[in-house]
Amino acid sequence: MTDFDGRRVLVTGAASGIGAACLEAFRAHGAHVVGVDRSVDEATGLVVCDVTSEEEVRAAFDRAGSVTDVVHCAGVLAIGDVVDTSPAEFAAVIDVNLVGSFVVAREAARRLPTAGSLTLLSSQAGRTGGGGWSAYCASKFGVIGFGESLAQELAPSGIRVNMVCPGTVATPMLDDVLAIAAQRRGVTLEEIRARYLDGVPLGRFADPAEIAGVCVMLASPASSYITGASIVVDGGELS
DSSP H helical segments within the chain, as ranges? Predict the structure, then answer.
């Protein structure tokens, strides 16, 4: 059910974290994978692409060829109280996380074949709000609403659209989050890490490969009747 021989997968945000794990996972299952990211050295084999640029996204799809599946992982994070956030800072997060999802998804919708799949990375923060996370939550809530709408639009064409909502994942971005959170609360990095872990019933943070595994599953025939779904992968944190 996870034999991707002959499939061509485009993965955004592929330079690190969940995107890099998705690139490796699909390749391990036999897919031809093209990874794109905003700031990469061509020597890495990744394609330079700003997901907010229609021209660059179009060029990335051209480079990828006849893609059968798209996994959109590219995104940015911002933490800050609303009273301290400027409209420009808020808009910057919306631009990458939500508008970027639209630009990539629109190109995917134009090119994916029948039985193709599009997976958008939202977040646990797309399902529940949190103080200091307003811009990020707004963008990720938006990804879910957009994805559900697009799933209905593309269902008659046999194209499935789903969202993955990770909880706390052990990535370089998490290190930045913990450092900012510790500073905001006036505690040590070790203390803030312990607080985050206390909220996860499984008692650990996710490995990026565990999120990638869900993305592989959603693109596989095992998920042939799943579309418009938001799959929470958070170790039970929202339960």
Answer: 17-28, 54-64, 87-94, 100-111, 134-154, 172-185, 189-198, 208-219
